Amino acid sequence: MTTIRFTTCLLAIAASSSGLAAQELLSHADIPGVFRAGECHEAPFPAQLPALDSVVDSASLAGGLQALGVNKRVVFQLRPGGSGPGPHVRVVEKKVSDQIADSSARLVEAMLRPMPPDSSRIFRLHIEMDHALTMRLERSRVCAANPGPKNPETQTVRMQTDSAADSRRAFEDASVRRRTIVARLLLDTYGQIVLMQLVRSSGDRGLDDQVKAAIRERVYTPTTIDGVTVAAWVEMRGDQ
């Protein structure tokens, strides 16, 4: 009896550990949200852009940028709540020299206010010099992973002449049901599938399996945010 209880306990612990590991893997994305494959949009995060001065010491930054000679547009991606030792500021767009852009990025990094780690704190700092230097926060741009061409499929169907109409209707019905299938993919920074979840079934397990197999065979470009590759959840409808 003791052995049986001990074994049951081990199985329960293993199941619990497996569930926790799965939850950790499910949440393993560099940016929050799910994005429609092949589409580009403004990032829906953070829910509301913060006030500029809550992110950077804007007065000191403005003086430093003018001292560096920033006299044209430069746009930075900010990750003020980013974790890890790497830089939290990256140049996205510039009309100044490389040297001024790099020096400006280091200055912005130094002027970031402390924030707790949060993957949704990713946005842009847009700096423009017209009659005076102006700064504003903007949303980043996310381009979801783009699936490559489908593998060519050839099907040969033998049928009696009087069953051609029925077969055609069955094929059209399968095509309609195929488009109702919705799958979500966690793709890494190389566009490789880490996880796949079936969100909406066609009601036909065989058809679901066909679509999932076709999705796995595709080659994907990785998702990007402001041109930087990230791991992210992407939604596929049918095998589009």
Sequence-ordered SSE layout with sheet pairings:
Layout: H1 2-26, E1 34-36, E2 40-42, H2 52-55, H3 58-68, E3 74-78, E4 89-94, H4 98-111, E5 123-129, E6 133-139, E7 141-143, H5 164-180, E8 182-187, E9 193-200, H6 205-217, E10 223-225, E11 228-230, E12 232-237
Helix pairs in contact: 3-4
Q: How are the strands ordered across the major sheet? A: 1-12-8-9
Helix content: 25-40%
Number of helices: 6
The termini sit apart by 55 Å
Global Rg? 25 Å
Q: What sequence of helices (H) and strands (E) makes up the elements?
A: HEEHHEEHEEEHEEHEEE
CATH top-level class of the largest domain:
Alpha Beta
Number of domains: 2
Number of strands: 12
CATH domain fold name of the largest domain: TolA/TonB C-terminal domain
Gross morphology is elongated
How can the largest sheet be summarized? 4 strands, mixed
Average pLDDT: 83
DSSP strand content: 25-35%
Uncertain runs: 1-26, 154-159
Which structural class matches the secondary elements? alpha+beta
Quickly give the CATH architecture of the largest domain. Answer: 2-Layer Sandwich
Report on the architecture of this protein.
The chain is an alpha+beta fold. The chain has two domains: 27-41 and 144-237, TolA/TonB C-terminal domain (2-Layer Sandwich), CATH 3.30.2420; 48-139, no CATH class. It is 35% helix and 25% strand. The protein has helices spanning 2-26, 52-55, 58-68, 98-111, 164-180, 205-217; strands spanning 34-36, 40-42, 74-78, 89-94, 123-129, 133-139, 141-143, 182-187, 193-200, 223-225, 228-230, 232-237. Strands 1-12-8-9 form a four-stranded mixed β-sheet. Strands 2-7-10-11 form a four-stranded antiparallel β-sheet, with no helix packed on it. α3 (58-68) packs antiparallel against α4 (98-111). It starts with a helix and ends with a strand. Mean pLDDT is 83; it is low at 1-26 and 154-159.
